[in-house]
């Protein structure tokens, strides 16, 4: 299969990251004239988070299809799966570790300042750090681990856990995937699993919350953050990639004007749904997960063809540059928002102007540090001497 780069996905990564960043400005909820608007219309990262899980699966499968022909497909060894997972996180790991250590230092300083520093505090932080170093905190399903130090690292942890089994998942999907119809059936099964596990894990979380004395060790992040459920989002992305690849091989002629209509239509639906989601009734709220995954899958599948007018905008150099910064922005913005937020919320009145100034500070510092981190991560050109 011919190697491809889907430029529109790179541009979309930046847009989705900024949706997540905005959703973390919860201090806006305290602004009397703006708080309700923010809570109702802007505090919503679900679609963007789902997009990144789907995108990870899509990209992994597309790369697998490009590297390995069907006739060369082999059952992966455990060592190969371990190497696969490590290779997918080793570039971002130094930044991940830096944000973890920054969070540890900040929390320790806060504990000393508030006179809560104790032997128990040290033991708790050491245990959390031990779980964080191998990026396995999301496997616990406990917020006391998944949201320690840097609250967004649960995402990278869940992905890493899924990366470790992804070679096996891609092998199985490629063995099963014989046609677009089979892929479509697999996609429906994956959607059902997403909903079923949300219901099951939600029931487990609710039951454990009612047990007195285990509040700090409760399994309370199975639905949203655990790899046990998020793996089906990644699988959905892999299945979409299989469908996309089969259709590309058929070289079906579709006009760019049609893709422009499709891109504009799906983008409008996504924007409308984004602003409406928090206003939808929460009775039997699991139906929202179905809308989320269905709409996100349609959105990704349409933009995968990279052919409409919105794709052309996303392909611009600046959007590509910002898209390549997205994971750095994701990891760096949250500790800045949280730990500097302690001082902001303690010493400044929560007015719209003060919040705006704090947001500008978060964004400027995040982008500067992201550019610095990205520059250190770029491979160095090594001039080889002639033999």
Quick synopsis:
By secondary structure, the protein is mainly alpha-helical.
Q: What would you note in describing this structure?
A:
- This protein is mostly helical and 387 residues long.
- 72% of the residues lie in helices and 0% in strands.
- The chain contains 18 helices and no strands.
- It has helices at residues 7-23, 35-42, 46-67, 78-89, 93-113, 119-132, 143-146, 153-163, 166-176, 180-209, 222-225, 227-250, 256-276, 286-304, 309-314, 317-324, 326-347, 352-377.
- Helix 1 crosses helix 16 (317-324), helix 10 runs antiparallel to helix 14 and helix 17 packs antiparallel against helix 18 (352-377).
- Residues 380-387 have low confidence and may be disordered.
Number of DSSP-assigned strands: 0
- Please tell me how large the radius of gyration is: 22 Å
Helical fraction equals over 70%
| SS class | mainly alpha
The main sheet comes to: none
Strand and helix map with partners:
Layout: H1 7-23, H2 35-42, H3 46-67, H4 78-89, H5 93-113, H6 119-132, H7 143-146, H8 153-163, H9 166-176, H10 180-209, H11 222-225, H12 227-250, H13 256-276, H14 286-304, H15 309-314, H16 317-324, H17 326-347, H18 352-377
């Amino acid at each position: 299969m011919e190697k491809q780069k889907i430029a529109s996905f790179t541009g979309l990564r930046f847009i989705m990251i900024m949706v997540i960043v905005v959703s973390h400005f919860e201090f806006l909820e305290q602004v009397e004239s703006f708080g309700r608007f923010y809570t109702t219309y802007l505090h919503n990262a679900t679609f963007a988070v789902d997009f990144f899980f789907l995108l990870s699966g899509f990209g992994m499968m597309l790369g697998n299809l490009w590297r390995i022909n069907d006739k060369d497909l082999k059952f992966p060894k455990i060592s190969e799966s371990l190497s696969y997972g490590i290779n997918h996180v080793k570039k971002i790991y130094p930044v991940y570790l830096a944000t973890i250590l920054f969070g540890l230092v900040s929390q320790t300083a806060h504990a000393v300042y508030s006179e809560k520093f104790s032997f128990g505090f040290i033991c708790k932080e050491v245990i959390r750090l031990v779980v964080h170093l191998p990026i396995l905190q999301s496997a616990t399903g406990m917020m006391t681990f998944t949201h320690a130090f840097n609250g967004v690292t649960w995402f990278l942890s869940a992905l890493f856990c899924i990366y470790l089994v992804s070679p096996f998942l891609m092998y199985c999907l490629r063995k099963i995937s014989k046609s677009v119809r089979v892929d479509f059936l697999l996609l429906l099964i994956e959607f059902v699993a997403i909903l079923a596990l949300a219901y099951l894990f939600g029931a487990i979380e609710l039951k454990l919350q009612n047990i007195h004395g285990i509040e700090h060790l409760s399994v309370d992040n199975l639905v949203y953050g655990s790899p046990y459920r998020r793996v089906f989002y990644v699988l959905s992305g892999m299945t979409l990639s299989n469908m996309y690849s089969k259709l590309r091989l058929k070289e079906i002629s579709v006009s760019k004007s049609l893709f422009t209509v499709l891109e504009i239509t799906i983008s409008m639906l996504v924007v409308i749904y984004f602003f409406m989601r928090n206003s939808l009734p929460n009775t039997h709220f699991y139906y929202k997960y179905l809308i989320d995954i269905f709409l996100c899958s349609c959105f990704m599948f349409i933009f995968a063809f990279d052919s409409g007018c919105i794709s052309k905008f996303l392909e611009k150099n600046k959007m590509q540059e910002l898209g390549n910064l997205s994971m750095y922005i994701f990891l760096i913005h949250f500790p800045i928002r949280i730990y500097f937020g302690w001082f902001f919320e303690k010493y400044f009145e929560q007015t719209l102007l003060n919040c705006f100034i704090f947001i500008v500070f978060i964004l400027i510092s995040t982008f500067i540090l992201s550019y610095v981190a990205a520059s250190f991560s770029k491979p160095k050109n090594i001039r080889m001497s002639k033999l």
